[in-house]
Design brief:
The protein is of the alpha+beta class. It has a domain of 100 residues: Alpha-Beta Plaits (2-Layer Sandwich). The protein is built from five helices and five strands, in the order ααβαββαββα. Strands 2-3-5 form a three-stranded antiparallel sheet. A two-stranded antiparallel ribbon has the order 1-4. The chain is elongated. It starts with 9 loop residues before the first helix and ends in a 13-residue tail after the last helix. The structure holds iron/sulfur cluster (2 copies). One iron/sulfur cluster binds next to α4.
Length: 166
């Protein structure tokens, strides 16, 4: 099939109207609100309830809330959680403390951010935070250990404490 080329008229042969139309589009966008985000320095503000990466939290006295019950490890669909229970008591003055994990690892490459761990945790010790951008140079870097999970999770100001001093 041969497509017939239509001849350009006088104005089209000048090309100037087409150049002017192009500049009009450029100018229109020049004065519009900027939408380019300087990622990764700038990040999206995610809505309340967003399910990002799961981290461990501490109570207001800085103690690990997790009692190493392993429910989250059991429920986790992709088996991203690995817990080594129990660890030594972090604080001998902690009275009727149950137990604490010796090690707690989450493979962020496996995690699907489903939130089951947060829902099942009886101690409110693990929460899905707002982090959606996790990076690393090696697979091993993406396996977060207890220290890293606790430092990222920070302190949770709520009324659910594993134990209180006598
Ligand atoms: S959010 Fe889901 S996949 Fe990720 S660690 Fe928790 S239970 Fe496992
Ligand atoms: S994070 Fe919660 S569910 Fe998981 S082992 Fe600790 S106390 Fe149990």
């Amino acid at each position: 099939m041969i497509v017939k080329r239509t001849n350009l008229n006088f104005w089209e042969r000048l090309y100037l109207p087409a150049v002017a139309a192009g500049f009009r589009v450029t100018l229109r966008h020049f004065f519009k609100k900027k939408v380019t985000m300087q990622y990764p320095e700038e990040k999206w503000t995610v809505p309340e309830g967003y399910r990002g990466a799961p981290y461990l939290v501490k109570d207001p006295e800085g103690r690990t809330k997790c009692v190493s019950c392993q429910l989250c490890e059991f429920i986790c669909p992709p088996k991203a959680i690995r817990i080594t229970p129990p660890g030594p008591l972090p604080d001998p003055a902690a009275g009727n403390v149950e137990k604490a994990p010796r090690e707690f690892k989450i493979d962020m490459l496996r995690c699907i951010f489903c939130g089951f761990c947060e829902e099942v945790c009886p101690e409110e010790a693990i929460f899905l935070m707002k982090d959606y951008s996790l990076t690393g140079l090696a697979r091993q870097e993406m396996v977060y250990d207890k220290a890293k999970l606790l430092s990222l999770g920070g302190v949770r100001q709520d009324g659910v404490w594993k134990w209180k001093h006598k």
